[in-house]
Amino acid sequence: MKHFDAIVIGTGSAGSTVATTLSEAGKKVAIIDDMPFGGTCSQRGCDPKKVLVGAAEIIARAQHMAGKGITGRPEINWQELMAFKKTFTGQIPANTEQKFADAGIAMFHGTATFLDKQTIQIGEEKLTADHIVLATGAKPAKLGIPGEELLIDSTGFLALESLPGSMVMVGGGYIAFEFAHMAARAGARVTILHRGRRPLEGFDADLVAMLVKATEAAGIRVILEAAVAQVTPSDEGFQVDYRKGGQTGSVQAGLVVHAAGRAPAVEELDPERAGIEHSKKGVKVNDYLQCLGNPAVYACGDVAEKGLPLTPLAGYEGRLVAKNILENNVETFNNAPVPSVVFTIPPLASVGMTEEKARETGKDLTVTCAETSDWYSSKRINEGISGYKTIVDKETGLLLGAHLFGDHSDEVINLFAMAMKFDIPASQLEKTIMAYPTRSSDIRYMF
Ligand SMILES: Cc1cc2nc3c(=O)[nH]c(=O)nc-3n(C[C@H](O)[C@H](O)[C@H](O)COP(=O)(O)OP(=O)(O)OC[C@H]3O[C@@H](n4cnc5c(N)ncnc54)[C@H](O)[C@@H]3O)c2cc1C
Ligand SMILES: NC(=O)c1ccc[n+]([C@@H]2O[C@H](COP(=O)([O-])OP(=O)(O)OC[C@H]3O[C@@H](n4cnc5c(N)ncnc54)[C@H](O)[C@@H]3O)[C@@H](O)[C@H]2O)c1
């Protein structure tokens, strides 16, 4: 039995951060993963996805500018694009392992399970540690519908050798909208089936309505209040049956994609053996990110119940866990607003509260919301639909939320995030001289 100061389970943004920080501080560290080292974001999530989005943006831009100085129709060559994508993802496992080797971190490949509060088993090997860190991320949630095995998940989609002519996205969240936008620009007929009344429930309703309009304008069908009930093989590939308001409907498609949510990767760990409490939302932790039921164990990233399941949060939580292990619980989780982007074309970006949530606070608000397709920034590229909403606390003048839809929203939102983090009042943001003509220079008209 080998003993370590810390065992980290998971090599993604959260786990890598903890392991390297502890190792740099002189701790004896082991790290475990049952997939190629490097985690979701860099290999199967954000980064490869945005390479594909980059190509789709060119198609959309050319379509918008057709007859306005752009002739000809660029097309996506899927095989070439996937080969380009692999130039980013292919080296990740080797580079990650090299980084761990250089840091003197012991590496183990396989599925980790708890044997007791401080013992982990991977295959035949048993490891013990003073601290164990759960950074196991999330996996596609079980749908519990007949034909579930016929769907591909986001990992499968990002590895497709060729793109079928038609596809259905089951679910209406980040993955559904991002993949639908890129597949449509690559020439596929796409249908989004979402069971809720509105998609992307965490985003502001008015801005989501703009995104849905732009999505439909890109030729994507969005069917709401449609709960997918079963998937069966058919002549065209698959038949997807759904229930909508007491009625049933069906869509034929060459591919069906699971875009119906991800669940924290907890079960395989056998957490009960270590006394670790968890819920559907993940491993329960206190403000130091220490597991409830077992203080020797910490959790960070998508697997932990705290914080949004996003990469910047995984890195932040990893840094926090490392610090709390090294310095014996000195810093608590900061629930400050985190910007989030749906990488559609154009992107939808948000930081802070939605108008709905802000109204619940009972504060006196100034809410400014408009479509901006007639603003120069949108007209210049013939962007059909764009808009914004800002929510300011009347008493303090501070921003409670900002929501943007349009070209470059994914970058401009970070200025709002900075203003919120450093309590810069809206009036100051408005007065800041920004380079012109840029989307950021539009901020002054958003209050
Ligand atoms: C398609 C897609 C696109 C995304 N796009 C974005 C984006 O644009 N921006 C953004 O901020 N976020 C995005 N995300 C979310 C982001 O990828 C995650 O929030 C982030 O990767 C979580 O990091 P993590 O370290 O918690 O877990 P992960 O990176 O998932 O790492 C966990 C690792 O633990 C391993 N593991 C699990 N259980 C065990 C076990 N029992 N034993 C051993 N190993 C185990 C897993 O195999 C995995 O390799 C996206 C996610 C997906 C799926
Ligand atoms: N740009 C980004 O930051 C980004 C991109 C992709 C993924 N992610 C992360 O990955 C997570 C998972 O993404 P996601 O898009 O799969 O999930 P999601 O939770 O954003 O959305 C899934 C939606 O599918 C619906 N749904 C579930 N079952 C259904 C059914 N049978 N029929 C119809 N609809 C159904 C749910 O009501 C839910 O609203 C996100 O929460 C996010 O944290 C982030």
Describe the structure.
With 447 residues, this protein is α/β, with parallel strands linked by helices. The protein folds into three domains: 2-140 and 263-327, FAD/NAD(P)-binding domain, CATH 3.50.50; 148-260, FAD/NAD(P)-binding domain (3-Layer(bba) Sandwich), CATH 3.50.50.60; 346-445, Enolase-like, domain 1 (2-Layer Sandwich), CATH 3.30.390. It has 13 helices and 23 strands. It has helices at 13-24, 39-44, 46-64, 78-89, 92-102, 154-157, 174-185, 205-217, 311-327, 355-360, 376-379, 409-421, 426-431; strands spanning 2-9, 29-33, 106-109, 112-116, 119-122, 125-134, 138-140, 166-170, 189-193, 221-223, 227-234, 237-244, 247-253, 255-258, 262-264, 278-279, 282-283, 297-299, 340-342, 348-352, 365-371, 387-393, 399-405. The strands form six sheets. Strands 1, 2, 3, 4, 5, 6 and 18 form a seven-stranded mixed beta sheet that branches. Strand 19 (340-342) and strand 20 (348-352) form a beta hairpin. Helix 1 (13-24) runs parallel beside helix 9 and helix 3 (46-64) packs antiparallel against helix 4 (78-89). The radius of gyration is 23 Å and the shape is globular. The protein starts with a strand and ends in a 16-residue tail after the last helix. The model has no long low-confidence stretch (mean pLDDT 98). The chain binds flavin-adenine dinucleotide (FAD) and nicotinamide-adenine-dinucleotide (NAD).
Q: Keywords, please?
A:
binds flavin-adenine dinucleotide, 30% helix, 23 strands, 447 residues, 7-stranded mixed sheet, 13 helices, globular, binds nicotinamide-adenine-dinucleotide, 26% strand, alpha/beta, Enolase-like, domain 1, FAD/NAD(P)-binding domain, 5-stranded antiparallel sheet, 3 domains
